[in-house]
Amino acid sequence: MSPNFIHTYVSVDCVVFGFDHENRLNILLVERHLDEERQIKLPGSLIFSDEDVDDAAERVLHELTGIKKMVLKQFKCFADPMRANDENDIKWMGIEYKQHIERIITVAYLSLCKIDHKINSTKYSTVDWFPIDEVPSLPFDHNKIINESLVEVRKWIELDFSIIFELLPKKFTIRQLYQLYSALSEKRIDIKNFHKKISSFNYIIPLEEIEKNVSHRAARYYKFDAKIYKKNNTKLIK
């Protein structure tokens, strides 16, 4: 065997997005322990020898959230030879996996979760939502993975607009939908034109219910009808 062939481990890392009650895009991070230091990171794991990579990602998400079925998409492999060369990262992997790991390739997955879901982690003692613009410096190349995932989720929504409703509560206002879409797409969209366009979609159903106990003018709630959407197969037109 050529000495130039790599000897490496393979892992999965999961980027889980949520949308909070303050209409901010959030990401789900976990805490790792190294000596007395605590540091947050993306949830992930080495892949078991008898495990498919997709199964590993589903396992990580279930251990993270307690939710068995979540929207999940593989989006990129990160294989930079230097992605795990930090001394603390190498030390943590040795403690976590009882292996001396110098090279690790990770397959990154993107998932969407309603933020009001109860998070019931069976693996991590600390799991927290962080606004995307408040994520600190993370281990390995996890900040890069998050940035790449934002690019990917924008492409995803352009191809299938219904994905956005995985982040919204079951009943939502047009402003919530607008703020989420704006945060994800990074496009400046006039809210009046947006409201007019959304009103033309028969799969976004107005409800006989409005907001209560709000300081601004109460808005009507809407719901998403997946069956009608599938029949129409309509994309949002910008």
Task: Report on this structure.
Strand 1 (9-19) and strand 2 form a beta hairpin. The radius of gyration is 20 Å and the shape is elongated. The longest helix has 18 residues, at 142-159. The strands form two sheets. Strands 1, 2, 3, 4, 5, 6 and 7 form a seven-stranded mixed sheet that branches. By secondary structure, the protein is an alpha+beta fold. It has helices spanning 53-65, 87-97, 142-159, 174-185, 191-199, 226-232, and strands spanning 9-19, 25-34, 37-41, 44-46, 71-78, 104-112, 127-131, 204-210, 220-224. It is built from six helices and nine strands.
Distance between the amino and carboxyl termini: 54 Å
Which structural category do the helix and sheet elements fall into?
alpha+beta
Poorly predicted parts: 234-238
Count of extended strands: 9
Please state the average pLDDT score.
89
What is the beta-strand fraction? 25-35%
H/E element sequence: EEEEHEHEEHHHEEH
Count of DSSP-assigned helices? 6
Binned, the helix content reads 25-40%
Global Rg = 20 Å
